[in-house]
Amino acid sequence: MVERQYVSLTDGAPAEKFFATEYAEYSVKQMDRRNDGELAAYQRLRAAIFVDQLGWAVPVDARGREYDHYDIEDDPTVSVHGVFGYAGNTMSSQPNVGRAIEHIRRPHFLGGVRIFTLRSWSNSMVMREFADAGMLPDAILYQLQRQYDCSDLLELTRLCVQRGRRYVPTGPYALVPTPSFDMMLARDLLYTAVFSMAASTGRTLALALVHAPYVKIMRRTHFVFDMLYEHELTCKQGYALTMIDLEASMHKIYQLDRPRALRALSLCDDQSERPSWRQYRLGPEEQKILSYDMAAEQPS
Prior knowledge:
This protein is of the alpha+beta class. The chain has 8 helices and 14 strands.
């Protein structure tokens, strides 16, 4: 299996990093709040995961979108990053309609994450929204402020991907075969944005409140983290407050799964604030072709 990487630059739009596999293409980019379609797709997925699946008591509008004030505020300390899947440009003949139909290269939203570059604890969702909802004891919040300087942290919130191991898009334009997309790869690609932010800011700790099933995923995928607080982790609706050591995680991932580590650092530039990560950077030839083991990647 071969993965090809390249960057697309479109005037007025964020740079988009592409990862092309044999059967599908993926991209990761910082999302533009002014793009209502992308934002709505992210909000609908948040509603499906955090409200419908996990039962969180957060607002959902009449169109099924989970929303909050961070979606509309122009705050430079908050960025939203998304992963998209693409099916290529093809022409196919459809017997049932008697004409050739162009399979337009459309993006399918696969997942997103919101990253806070904290300036003060008052900007933190953990300290504000999650605390106000009664999800975290005051003693834990007090200890968090005493033990950590918020300017050393990133905060990860609303990280979610489409359900299941593989995602097959549906919709009115699904008239031609559409490949399924690997959600393990989509989740990994979200972390390319996280590692890029860590490299550019020098902040290698990430605070994240995660639901119980995701704690298992973090352990299985070699992340190094401390459990600051846990609540009913044996239940699907349980959650934990975690502090992820991104630098230690990168070292461990590199030792156990080198292609995944290289992919995770593919958005970091050579002026990274983390010089220790430069040893892991791709050389010119590796940037062209990166092999990885994705046994489940099959044509639909």
